[in-house]
Automatic annotation (TrEMBL), chain A:
This is Cytochrome c biogenesis protein ResB. Its main location: membrane. GO terms for biological process: cytochrome complex assembly. InterPro entries: Cyt_c_bgen_Ccs1/CcsB/ResB, ResB-like_domain.
From TrEMBL, chain B:
Its main location: membrane. Residues 143-341 form the Cytochrome c assembly protein domain. The chain crosses the membrane at residues 12-34, 115-137, 143-163, 170-193, 205-234, 255-274, 289-308, 320-337. Keywords: Cytochrome c-type biogenesis, Membrane, Transmembrane, Transmembrane helix. This is C-type cytochrome biogenesis protein CcsB. It is found in: Membrane.
Length: 519, 347
């Protein structure tokens, strides 16, 4: 399509037309280039709040924080769906209009294009030498020879009485059409992925396992067409996690590498296989990918209650408080303790070092000298059995905390416990013992049936846009009259004259070369 | 050489590149200043050929060094596109040479320009040296943080300028490109400097070579377009020592035409990487949002170029808005937003 064809003046408003006239006018306006341009602007503009306002799907905790700090603002954000811009009605309206406009644009263009493909190049002008690129030479070139040579250069050729016209560069339009169709393809693939795919997060401690069922996830985000039975039935055990850190220099403590050793069962019947899970190298089971996204420490504790029975024993995943040193906060709950339930707040220091004032801090994220500090111990009803959801990182909600009985409150500089050490609680109500250190990893599992189609459409878009922008439509005309050959050429694409001069010179050289193709 | 020595050498190379670019800028500026003033829109000043639908004859097939001149107006043909007539795009040389009004340019000015070009190449070599030694020092692809990224973009911009200059005369842009990259490198050193070191595991992947390299190449080209766009708006339509608007527009358009597919590729490669690293190929992370906005804005520019009433000034403004989005994505997003991409290492 040439540039002018895009530029029909905007259709005038139909004066006194019926509904059909208005519909036609509406459709024309929607599929005009100007509307497409405006919709593109709106699409870009509409994305901006998506980066400024935290998005529910990406950072739910920040959204919650806004609700807490400024409920009125959060209310307004919510009213305009600013917490979920990219799934909002108004954003969908913009891109659906844009894609409708796109379809309205592509269909007639494809028809024009197909017609053009079948049409022969137009007859040569009377004086090709008046075209932007031209050359004249004397020679005994015949129309047939010229046509043959141009065809060999992959031109589409038409001939007539004393003239040849040739055209090339249809891939440009092909590329343009494929590009726009590929954009539609990407949209459809993304849509399918969000309907039929799911994502889930889970935390797994060393030696523990995970089975891919909805119940096993800490957080599960299914598409609307996902059923619980459709999950790929694999499972694995976390045998070991290795994290290496930079030991010296400015970047001391920076993570260098993670690797988690898994024992994977692709299905309940399948034998276990070893898999080394690393960043950038997800585990793939039947199209369901599992990714390593975080890690931390899970010190192991044993709580003995006032009756001398073990009320709790096991690893406790701790929340990272300082990423640089992996200082972590831990909560131990022993609701089974007798006569009263027990709860503990602790701090885990993977590489504990004493400071001059007697306090201890972690100096390195690796596990060189693991110690824990007991910050507080409580007895009383932890509210675990109240049926309300509880956080593993919080001893109890504030209102419950107030009713607990503090047994032991640490000084500012609690003396840390090394592995194997324990603290006895006052009044003989029990003791807590630090027995070892494990690590945890957080995983994300994702199933997205749209990824491959999206990839294919994306790849097509790249190739097609390159063709569309790099290739120029060009025509070459030859007129032969009494031993005098006139050649003229022009490009049909705006702003693409560059480089054609050289090509044209080559064409002229080829045409003027004497006996070349006499067999 | 030890890693520390290599890293120091890299820092020295950056300083050398800045100095060379600054001196080259002065040289190019001298050439512009003592050259002649050019009309803003070649065609209009030559008697309203704009939009005329006459076939424009060009003396000889242009190319081979000689800038093609419009035989009728005596000016480099380029503006005919604006008439939108597919049968009459004057092709002329790709880009006009300096000195459009007929009088020969002063020899001293031309010499200053040539010297500046040589210095620019030297600066380019120093810039390359800085990147290569940094890469050797850290034993990975040297674009793992903002400092390294900006140094590489400046290199890409200079490369784009110098390579174009090999094919067509774009010396008129020289001083502006040089000042831009000198400022860019200065900013990198002053604001973003990061000591050589390893990157976080997520970045330690061959994808960095694919995704980030493409982003760098595209950004370098977009920078050239941006420089041209700013100049386009700065100079009026009248006589000025600044380059002609038509030339600026053409350089900008060509740069974007090359850069856009590369940027598209960079975004898609980023999605592929995200699929490997984070478990989803697109998640509206701030960096992803702004890459998308930038991409849509440049697509809008390409559409504006073929929309009646949007060519020239409006299209240039669209292009600059897009460039602003690109810069914001590079600098603003790293500083203001927290996301999965927050590995820029700026404090
Ligand atoms: C998702 C939205 C869209 C995107 C991202 C997009 C992107 C692009 C890009 C990058 C180009 C440049 C290729 C070239 O210049 O050859 C292009 C060209 C073009 N687009 Fe779109 N487009 C979109 C929607 C539309 C719509 C809705 C229309 C119709 C109203 C349209 C009509 C065209 C036309 C006619 C061209 C060819 C311009 C030329 O001949 O140079 N596009 N598009």
């Amino acid at each position: 399509m040439s540039v002018q064809e895009l530029e029909k003046p905007r259709s005038p408003k139909p004066a006194g037309f019926g509904p059909v006239g208005w519909l036609r006018w509406g459709w024309r306006t929607l599929t005009s280039m100007r509307t497409a341009l405006i919709l593109l602007f709106l699409l870009a503009l509409g994305s901006v709040p998506g980066s400024v306002v935290p998005q529910r799907g990406v950072e739910p905790d920040k959204v919650a924080a806004i609700y807490e700090q400024d409920p009125a603002l959060a209310e307004w954000y919510d009213r305009f769906q600013l917490f979920e811009v990219f799934t909002s009605t108004w954003f969908a309206a913009v891109y659906l209009l844009l894609f409708t406009s796109l379809i309205g644009c592509i269909v007639p263009r494809t028809a024009t294009y197909l017609r053009e493909l079948r049409r022969k190049p137009p007859a040569a002008p009377k004086r090709p030498s008046r075209l932007p690129h031209s050359a004249t030479f004397d020679g005994d070139l015949t129309v047939e020879q010229a046509a043959r040579r141009l065809r060999r250069m992959r031109f589409r050729v038409a001939t007539g009485d004393g003239w040849v016209s040739a055209e090339k560069g249809f891939l440009r339009e092909t590329g343009n059409l494929f590009f726009h169709v590929a954009l539609l393809g990407i949209l459809v693939a993304i849509g399918a992925g969000s309907l039929f795919g799911y994502r889930g997060n889970v935390l797994v401690v060393e030696d523990d396992g995970f089975a891919n069922t909805v119940a096993a996830y800490d957080r599960f985000m299914p598409g609307s067409q996902v059923s619980a039975e459709s999950l790929e039935p694999f499972s694995f055990q976390l045998a070991d996690l290795k994290v290496s850190y930079q030991v010296t220099g400015d970047r001391k403590g920076q993570v260098l590498d993670y690797s988690a050793r898994l024992k994977v069962n692709d299905s309940p019947e399948a034998p276990a296989r070893d898999y080394e899970l690393k960043v950038n190298e997800p585990l793939d089971v039947g199209g369901t990918q599992t990714y390593l996204i975080g890690n931390g420490y899970a010190p192991v504790f044993r709580v003995t209650d006032g009756k001398g029975q073990v009320a709790f024993e096991g690893p406790v995943p701790c929340l990272i408080e300082d990423k640089a040193t992996m200082t972590s906060g831990c909560v131990v709950k022993a609701p089974d303790a007798q006569p009263e339930q027990l709860g503990f707040l602790l701090r885990f220091l993977p590489t504990s070092v004493p400071l001059t004032d007697g306090s201890h801090v972690s100096a390195f994220p690796g596990e060189l000298n693991p110690e824990v500090q007991l910050l507080g111990a409580f007895s009383g009803d932890l509210g675990v059995r109240s049926g309300r959801p509880q956080s593993v990182y919080e001893l109890a909600p504030p209102e419950v905390m107030k009713k607990l009985n503090p047994l032991l409150m640490a000084s500012d500089t609690p003396k840390p416990l090394a592995v194997g050490q324990s603290v006895d609680l006052p009044g003989g109500v029990g003791k807590i013992e630090f027995t070892g250190v494990k690590e945890w990893i957080t995983l994300q599992t994702a199933y997205d049936p749209g990824r491959l189609p999206a990839l294919v459409a994306g790849g097509t878009a790249v190739v097609a846009i390159a063709l569309s922008l790099m290739i120029r439509r060009r025509r070459v005309f030859v007129r032969i009259e009494g031993g005098k050959v006139e050649v003229g050429g022009l490009t049909r694409t705006e702003g693409s004259a560059a480089g054609f001069a050289e090509e044209f010179a080559d064409i002229v050289k080829d045409l003027s070369a004497g006996e070349k193709d006499v067999r | 050489m030890s890693a520390e020595q290599l890293a120091e050498l890299s820092d020295l190379f950056v300083v050398a590149a800045v100095l060379l670019y600054v001196v080259a800028m002065v040289g190019f500026a001298i050439e512009l200043a003592f050259g002649r003033a050019r009309p803003g829109v070649a065609a209009r000043s030559a008697g309203g050929a704009l939009g005329a639908r006459k076939p424009v004859a060009v003396g000889a097939p242009a190319g081979d060094g000689a800038p093609g001149r419009d035989a009728v107006t005596g000016l480099p043909g380029d503006h005919v596109d604006a008439g939108g007539d597919a049968t009459a795009p004057a092709s002329g040389g790709d880009v006009a040479a300096a000195g459009d009004d007929g009088a020969p340019p002063s020899r001293a000015a031309v010499r200053a320009g040539t010297a500046a070009l040589a210095l620019a190449w030297l600066g380019w070599a120093a810039n390359l040296g800085a990147i290569a030694t940094r890469g050797l020092a850290v034993d990975r692809w040297p674009w793992g943080n903002m400092y390294e990224f900006v140094v590489a973009i400046c290199f890409a911009a200079v490369t784009a300028f110098l390579v174009t200059q090999l094919r067509a005369n774009v010396r008129f842009l020289g001083s502006f490109v040089m000042v831009t990259v000198a400022l860019g490198l200065g900013l990198a050193v002053k604001a973003f400097y990061t000591t050589a070191g390893p990157v976080v595991p997520a970045l330690d992947s061959y994808w960095i070579a694919i995704h980030v390299s493409a982003a760098i190449v595209a950004s370098g080209l977009f920078t050239i377009a941006g420089v041209s766009g700013v100049l386009y708006l700065l100079r009026g339509d009248g006589l000025s020592r600044l380059p002609a608007r038509a030339d600026l527009e053409r350089v900008a358009h060509r740069a974007i035409v090359f850069a856009f597919p590369v940027w598209t590729f960079a975004v898609i490669a980023g999605a592929l990487w995200a699929d490997r690293a984070w478990g989803r190929y697109w998640g509206w992370d701030p960096k992803e949002v702004w890459a998308f906005i930038t991409w849509v804005a440049y697509a809008a520019y390409l559409h504006a170029r073929v929309t009646a009433g949007w060519r020239g000034r409006s299209a240039t403004i669209v292009q600059l808005v897009a460039f602003g989005c690109l810069l914001f994505n590079l600098i603003g997003v790293n500083i203001f937003f927290e996301g999965l991409h927050s590995y820029a290492d700026v404090d």
